[in-house]
Amino acid sequence: MRPPLWQPSGDLSPTEQTIIKRIKRAKLFVFLRQHRHTLFDAAFQDDLATSYQDAPQRQPPIPPAQLALATILQASSGVVDDELLEATVMDRRWQLVLDCLEGETPPFSKGSLVTCRKLLIAHQLDRRLLERTVEVAAATKAFGSRALHPALSSSPPSGAGRVEDTY
User: pLDDT by residue (tens digit) across 45-56?
Assistant: First the structure.
C-alpha cells in the first residue's frame, strides 16, 4: 500500500497567524510552516512514498512528508522520539509545522517515526531533505541558511548517531 500524499492547507489560519506572531526566537518553526509546501512538493513526496514500496505495512500509512518534517524538527531541537511525540501534543509550534493544531494525541506513532527515519537513511533521502531545506532557506532568504546547515547536519536524523531513550 502506497502512503498518502501530505496536503495540509497552504494558507495560514487565524490561529496559525497568532502563533507565528508569538514566536520570537524559534524562527525555524515559522520558516518550516511557511515553506513546507516547497520542501515537500509532489516530486519529493513521490520519492518519499517510493521508499515505502518494500516496507511491511501493519497499519494505515502516515504521509512520509509529515514524518520527514518531524525529523527536521527533531534534529534541530535535539529531542528523542518520545519527546518529539510529546511535543506534537503539548507545543503549539510543533503543531503549527506538522498541521496537528489542538490534537490530543500524536499524529503518528513512535514506530512510524522510526520506520520513516530508517527508510530516509536507506534511500539517502535524509541528505536530500537536509539539502533541500538549506536550499529553500537560501533561495527565499526566509531563514539563515548558514546557521541552518550546521544545526541540521550536526544532528542527523540517523539511527547510527542518535541515542534513543536508553537507560
Answer: 999 999 888 766
